[in-house]
Amino acid sequence: MAYKLVALDVDGTLLNDNHVMTEQTMQTVMEASRQGIEIVLCTGRGPQNTIPFLEEMGLKGYVISHNGAATVEVESRKVVHQFALDHHALKPYMEHCRQQGIHFDINTPFGMYVDQVEALAGPVRYMYEKYLMMPSNLPAWEELDGPVVKFTAFGESKDMDALFQAWSQWTPVYNMLRSGEYFIDLMQEEASKGNALKLLAEQRGYKREEILAIGNYYNDVTMLSYAGLGIAMDNSPVDVKAAADEITLSNNEDGVHAALLKHCLV
Known about the structure:
6-stranded mixed beta sheet, Rossmann fold, single chain, 8-stranded mixed beta sheet, alpha/beta, 2 domains
């Protein structure tokens, strides 16, 4: 099959555990682009700390950010599609986090907000530095730079397990998913990487069978299931591997390089 669009998750997929894109993987992605394949990064990150990876490779096109909640054109920074959520319903989640001492941030397509930037310290500050994105102080809702597209809770794995279990007992309001071992995301009900990829593919004129997707975590399952060929990294949880059509090497073994070499390069 001649694939025309490749959707790549970023953390745990395109990047190794040191949050670095290796030279081999980068060169292979660039070669796929040179051969006419459109490269789309599909990530839980925002566009500000996703677009630089494409620009580093000299690529344009689109990024699907915030786990599918906002799709952005690289050159113009224009939001071509977004799933805005009802921020009024976030109040009980915010209060619960504050009562339990759980850190959270609120995301618009291009903005990230927390209660007190000046109070960020320890693992929380390190997390933002590692992902190359520092938030701003949360203003009044009407002063945000755009609609809210994602709410993220961050903490130790065991705390996120307990929080996920607790929120699972609440009346469902949002699409709630684990986007990483230390993260829980709340988004609009229809927001997902799979739905965003479907919308972008239709806009770009690609058939489902012309799409290859590679990912490694639960937030990638809808994308892997939608694509004509869904490939899970070897570092994926068992459930994610089960949702994929194929398994490639881990992110520390250039699994993206191996998958593209097998299925896309001529």
